[in-house]
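Milestone 3.1: sequence recovery, worked example.
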């Protein structure tokens, strides 16, 4: 498929067959599963997924890619359902209907965080996600407390999903090569009772406030949201900084504030 890539749409197409095979193995489609690929582009992952799995829904924003993708489905005699849309407007819950979905894709890096937050809004219908993103973002997604890159993204995602980095991918695997390293990551939604997040809106507010000014102590950063006594009652040190607090502590704090 020849196509002039568009930088504005984050188009870096996978071109290394060994890496493509590794990624498809990491996705590991199983019979009966419903797979949705975000940003199929010129079909680097779409083709092997279709060859292996026979059926796939893809969501692509670039109208110039719709005809070639349609031709790919026809060439393989596969069931390729093409959704021509901005993924951020796609209602995954409606798309899933009564069958849970697996989300996969080499994401457009310029909107990778919005895509992750959009997916969080539809988590009950998502079995898992296998995404490629900038390695720096994957590092932040998976970071543990105390790490320099542990922040809002780590806490917001880890409260809802288990985050597992899988494969590091160098720029040379793409055409054109991006300026940064990439990585493949798996996100598996946690069972509702695992961390027991009961107050998602309050949780979001607490986490946003805590990390808004990383250098401040929790006492100062969360001054508008809760008191030092409320933190102490949960054994959370008000003199600590946001980056040292475990995900489960943020969940406990939001739950307690909601119950107060
Ligand atoms: N999967 C292909 C590959 O690995 O070679 C392409 C990946 S490329 C990094 C990202 C793809 O997402 C491009 O095809 C781009 O057109 C598409 N894209 C960009 N913004 C999008 C959006 N808002 N909604 C859906 N697709 C989008």
């Amino acid at each position: 498929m020849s196509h002039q890539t568009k930088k504005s749409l984050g188009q870096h197409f996978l071109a290394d067959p060994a890496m493509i095979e590794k990624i498809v193995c990491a996705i590991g489609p199983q019979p009966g599963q419903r797979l949705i690929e975000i940003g199929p582009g010129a079909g680097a992952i779409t083709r092997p997924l279709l060859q292996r799995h026979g059926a796939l829904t893809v969501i692509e924003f670039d109208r110039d890619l719709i005809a070639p993708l349609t031709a790919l489905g026809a060439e393989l005699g596969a069931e390729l359902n093409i959704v021509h849309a901005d993924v951020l407007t796609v209602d995954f819950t409606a798309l899933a209907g009564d069958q849970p979905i697996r989300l996969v894709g080499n994401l457009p890096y310029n909107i990778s965080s919005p895509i992750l937050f959009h997916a969080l809004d539809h988590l009950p219908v998502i079995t898992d996600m296998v995404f490629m993103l900038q390695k720096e973002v994957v590092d932040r997604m998976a970071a543990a407390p105390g790490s320099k890159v542990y922040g809002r993204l780590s806490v917001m995602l880890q409260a809802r999903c288990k985050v597992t980095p899988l494969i590091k991918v160098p720029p040379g695997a793409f055409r054109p090569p991006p300026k940064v390293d990439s990585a493949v990551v798996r996100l598996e939604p946690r069972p509702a009772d695992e961390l027991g997040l009961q107050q998602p809106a309050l949780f979001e507010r607490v986490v946003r406030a805590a990390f808004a000014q990383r250098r401040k102590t929790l006492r100062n950063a969360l001054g508008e949201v809760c008191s030092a006594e409320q933190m102490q009652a949960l054994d959370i040190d008000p003199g600590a900084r946001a980056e040292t607090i475990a995900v489960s502590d943020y969940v406990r704090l939001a739950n307690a504030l909601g119950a107060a």
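The chain is about 40% helix and 20% strand. The pocket of S-adenosylmethionine is lined by residues 9-14, 39-42, 44-45, 59-62, 86-88, 106, 108, 111 (CB under 6 Å).
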